[in-house]
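Narrative progress, year one. The postdoctoral researcher (J.K.) led the effort to move from monomer predictions toward full complexes, under supervision of the PI. The following entry was the first complex the group processed end to end, covering 562 residues in total.
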Amino acid sequence: LPVVAIVGVGLIGGSIGLALRERGLARRVIGVARREETVRAAMERGAIDEGTLDAREGVASADLVVLCTPVLTIPPLAERIAERLWPGTIVTDVGSTKEYLSREVSRRLPPGCPFVGGHPMAGSEKGGVEAARADLFEGATWVLCPGELDPLARLASWVLALGARPICMEAEAHDRVVAAISHLPHVAAAALVNAVVAGGEERDVLRTFIAGGFTSTSRIASSPPELWRDICLTNRESVLATLGHFRAALARFEEALRREDAAGLLAAFADAREAREELIR
Amino acid sequence: LPVVAIVGVGLIGGSIGLALRERGLARRVIGVARREETVRAAMERGAIDEGTLDAREGVASADLVVLCTPVLTIPPLAERIAERLWPGTIVTDVGSTKEYLSREVSRRLPPGCPFVGGHPMAGSEKGGVEAARADLFEGATWVLCPGELDPLARLASWVLALGARPICMEAEAHDRVVAAISHLPHVAAAALVNAVVAGGEERDVLRTFIAGGFTSTSRIASSPPELWRDICLTNRESVLATLGHFRAALARFEEALRREDAAGLLAAFADAREAREELIR
């Protein structure tokens, strides 16, 4: 069994730790956090066996290092830990944008330490180890980017053991798909909330009128802003492309409504319902 | 106890029937539907005591008539039933746009039959009596539009008895608030789904990547398209105004991302999180 170092024990890192320990998949789980209270919380939740504030110390005895910090902090982190990794240590991550990370992390690691970019398609609008769950990855797609075959195969088995479904996909293709199915919904939800309060209606009145529609449509607008800033910035072109599609899709509704085109409006709503029913099965 | 006629026994009408019967609030609940199988389903669910396909017959013995059909069908329905209403029968509805309905329904009813527009802030993306629930209105805001005091007071007690919280609000103000908090999210969710599939990614691949974010953000895009066409058309100006705010809110994200303005992007996400946390308490 490997010694696993999880750098960043928030929602995702904490959930990996819980799953590893609950399923007996690691000899030892070492957690690295920036703050003492996070280490303590992760210990109390049973997500890690031991914790440290020093990433270099945390990874020194690991067979597998999982980088679970916000996207833009991962490359400097890779740089910092590089010289403390044993040859043969596999490094992976869980960042939402893979082209940027595959490029920026690989070149900072020593030759004997392969990097395999990863991305579990699971999450929550709630951050932090308090929201971590051992079953967070149950049945979830977990993308692994192509690279050296042996570490890729080991990680694929590891992901399977965590209850997720590993699929191998080029970083660029991954980034385009998640821009549409994940990054766009986050931007749309945030813009929706900003638009709702921009109309000048009193917030107490708006609150009175909230039903399930607003609640679920806006849920992920409560996600940590720093994470989503980084994700957008490191998947800029694909996110801008999906925002263009979204602008066009909205214009279709707006134009039909402006022209009082009942058939056009119905078709736009019907297309959406049909596409969603096909996607969510 | 009143005899209540519910015209349109779908999600809302069916839920009213279930709540009335479960709480013993009606002498008899008469359901009116367009199709025989809907009457049968509503009987089987226990949402009505008896059913008919003839609206004129259905309302003839009612003390309270609740119109629960799609918005644009309500005025012609009012016209059709008008001459069969007893003087003193109170008529209400559950339509999502109140200015249009208050105007169009009132003038079609006979003098002795007061109309009080209503709108329960509860629903589901699933339509039909199959999705009806006796507790759908539990704790939900239920708007009643101002009008004659006696019928308004009776309806307010009736709404309270159903477990909801009646509030009295002018139709125009209601329409502006629901445009922002309910109608805009429906259009946004539908446009989001259309944008996601517009990018040309294969649907099987997109499906593999679906996590909680897309699922909840797009949930109400599965709502019945006819309902939402009618709602948009009858609340056109307010919905167009909120779409303008939404366009501006999206442009803020898009511009910040285009300029790689990390601080601007963070602020836009942070504003959304803060506003949502304040609204959802």
